[in-house]
Write a structure and sequence with these properties.
The protein folds into two domains: 7-171, Orthogonal Bundle (Butyryl-Coa Dehydrogenase, subunit A, domain 1); 178-319, Butyryl-CoA Dehydrogenase, subunit A, domain 3 (Up-down Bundle), CATH 1.20.140. Helix content is 54%, strand content 9%. It has eleven helices and nine strands. The mean pLDDT is 92.
């Protein structure tokens, strides 16, 4: 399989990186209700970012899973707070389950904010969401009418809420939706892991100890090399899984689980080592290192943790991938 990106996909990456790099103010945004910036949301809608996962016929960009992952990776690199990831997961799943055209147009235009979770007890950005897609193993559904109560959340960039439906759920079609959600989370995690790695290496180049940069010490070099190895391995796994989904591969669920495990491991390692390399300043509120670590804790259990992913992959291998 060819993992190189087309010129058009590279252009999408460059534009997404430019936009998120210029417009995302993490500290300002996490101080807003739901870590949601309405002005930024409107800009994202005007650029087509909110409809990246929605078919053109329904008012979106009609992007492939690979292209959607490119945008999510760059959003993760910028540590974008707010509902963009769960909104995109909801768009991906609703499109595959035969979503409502009016709802799809509204989501692409930013009028409707969606979230997605596997558990009503912990919905990211649920307090500001208009609808919630619940992606269960057996029966996925959409909740349109509910009350939301914010709960304590590790991730300050995506506050969680407990959802209490006030009307019945709307069942979604019998199609596998969780693999798409796993790959989307993994793509964002790879981007944020890469940002944590960059933060650590830049600090290691500048911080002086014993008359030279700490990045020249072998112990720091080994940490950085291991961080880079995990990020690159996770990135390959993510785009392999995204390609498998685009091609309708019957083993896409195994590739998705592999990508999620690889991204979980890379993100947790990079977030933790970023704090270690920064030393004392890395555990202060003023530094962003703890925000990376908090998100890693939350993202690593979204739509399945590493233990569950490894179990799925092991069972598939023992049974035979095409069994």
């Amino acid at each position: 399989m060819n993992f190189s990106f087309t010129p058009e996909q590279e252009a999408v990456r460059a534009e997404a990186r430019r936009f998120f790099g210029e417009r995302v103010d993490v500290r300002a945004q996490i101080a807003m209700p739901g870590a949601h910036d309405p002005a930024l949301w409107k800009e994202m809608a005007s650029l087509g970012l909110l409809g990246v996962a929605i078919p053109e016929a329904l008012g979106g960009q009609g992007s492939s899973m690979v292209e959607t992952c490119i945008v999510l990776e760059e959003a993760g690199r910028a540590l974008l707070p707010g509902p963009f990831l769960p909104h995109t997961i909801a768009a991906l799943t609703l499109a595959r389950a035969g979503g409502n055209p009016d709802l799809a147009h509204s989501m692409a235009g930013g009028e409707t904010i969606a979230s997605a979770s596997e558990d009503l007890a912990q919905v990211p950005c649920g307090a500001i969401a208009d609808i919630v897609a619940i992606l269960r193993f057996q029966q996925s559904a959409v909740v349109r009418s509910f009350e939301a109560e914010e709960i304590e959340s590790a991730d300050l960039t995506r506050p969680a809420s407990r959802i209490s439906p006030t009307a019945g759920e709307e069942p979604l079609g019998p199609v596998p939706l969780r693999p798409v959600a796993c790959v989307a989370v993994a793509a964002e995690s790879v981007g944020t892991a890469a940002a944590a790695l960059e933060s650590a290496t830049e600090y290691a180049k500048d911080r002086q100890q014993f008359g030279r940069p700490i990045g020249s010490f072998q112990a720091i070099k080994h940490k950085a090399a291991d961080m880079l190895r995990t990020v690159e391995a996770a990135r390959l796994a993510v785009y392999f899984a995204a390609s498998a989904i685009d091609e309708g591969d019957r083993n896409a669920h195994v590739a998705a689980a592999t990508a999620k495990v690889a991204a979980n491991d890379a993100f947790m390692r990079c977030a933790a080592e970023n704090i270690q390399i920064h030393g004392g300043i890395g555990v202060t509120w003023e530094h962003d290192a703890h925000l990376y670590y908090r998100r890693a804790l939350a993202s690593s259990v979204m739509f399945g943790d590493s233990a569950g992913g490894r179990d799925l992959v092991a069972r598939a291998l023992f049974a035979g991938l095409d069994a």
